Amino acid sequence: MAKKISYLHFYFLHQHSLVIIPHTAMAHRVAFLDFVALALCSTLSLTTEPANLQDFCVADGNTNTRMNGFAYKDPAMVQASDFSFSGLHIPGSTANAVGFRVTPVFVTQIPGHNTLGISIVRIDYDPWGINSLHTHPHATEILTVMEGTLEVGFVTSNPENCHITKVLKKGDVFVFPVGLVHYQRNIGYGHVVDIVALSSQNPGVIIVANAVFANLSLLVSGYQGNNLSSQCAIKVDLMKCFDSVNWNYLFMMTGVTGFRMCYLN
User: Fold this and answer.
1) Residue 122, SS3 per DSSP
2) Residue 102: band (very low, low, confident or very high) from pLDDT cuts 50, 70, 90
3) Per-residue pLDDT tens for 186-214?
4) Most buried among 43, 83, 117, 139, by the most CB within 10 A?
5) Cα(117)–Cα(114) distance, integer angstroms
6) Beta carbons of 58 and 112 less than 8 angstroms apart
7) Residues annotated in a binding site for Mn(2+)
8) Which residue ranges make up the annotated binding site?
9) Mean pLDDT of all residues in the chain?
10) How far apart are alpha carbons 139 and 242 in whole angstroms?
11) In angstroms, rounded to a whole number, what is the distance separating the alpha carbons of residues 192 and 148?
């Protein structure tokens, strides 16, 4: 007759795993639980910014010390002004080629949120202004529309590359997962304002167009002759890339970003 073994069931939400441990293996069970607890704590510590060992670490702007974050001042020297910022109600100037402006509230603006793992920005958009394709390598982003109508979207990673998009109105909230390429675009005829919170004191930003075209010499060096100057050796047939193309909008955006019309024919 087979020996009957009772089991203790332990459920972990970590990576949707189910761990079943024999009741009879007492010593191994205890050791295994210690190992799992250590693994879970180690994993969680890698997915967030370092936790404080004191109440706060107010950034010290008067030191040249370099570290992961900012050097902090003596707590005895901390003041209320280190934890506050005024001006987020003031519209940012959108007098630029893309018609939008970011007003950041990072450690530079509020030294007291050094090491706290958060930041916030205000974004203003002119009609048809666009915050073009970009990504934040260090942070998840949550956006709340305060005024106007805003189209937002992000693209999932390979191999799906799925485009997730939605039109937001005043009071709507949208989340952009960490690291994914995303954008915002004012599709109305009025001003748009949104407030964005990010899960890092330094979310970072990579603008896709800048990353690809910032150094054209790398792209064209193989196409240069002895007597030829650097030229852009890129041609895109948009009709083959997309199901439909809004040519009026495309020409308008390429014009305001400095492309000459002769390159678009």
Assistant:
1) strand
2) very high
3) 998 899 999 999 999 999 999 888 877 66
4) 139
5) 8
6) yes
7) 134, 136, 141, 182
8) 131, 134, 136, 141, 182
9) 76
10) 30
11) 4
Q: List, in order, residues 6 or more apart from 141 with CB less than 8 Å away.
A: 175, 176, 182, 196, 197, 198, 199, 203
Give the three-class secondary structure for 79: coil
Rounded to an integer, what distance in angstroms lies between the CA atom of residue 163 and that of residue 153? 7
Q: Are 184 and 150 in contact (CB under 8 A)?
A: yes
Per-residue confidence (pLDDT) for residue 73, from 0 to 100: 87
| Bridge partners (DSSP) listed for residue 145 | 194
Numbered residues of the known binding site for oxalate = 131, 136, 141
d(CA 152, CA 167): 6
SS3 label, residue 12: coil
Quick check: bond before 75 cis, omega within 30? no
pTM value > 0.70: no
Taking a C-beta distance cutoff of 8 angstroms, is the pair 140, 199 a contact? yes
Residue 3 DSSP one-character state? P
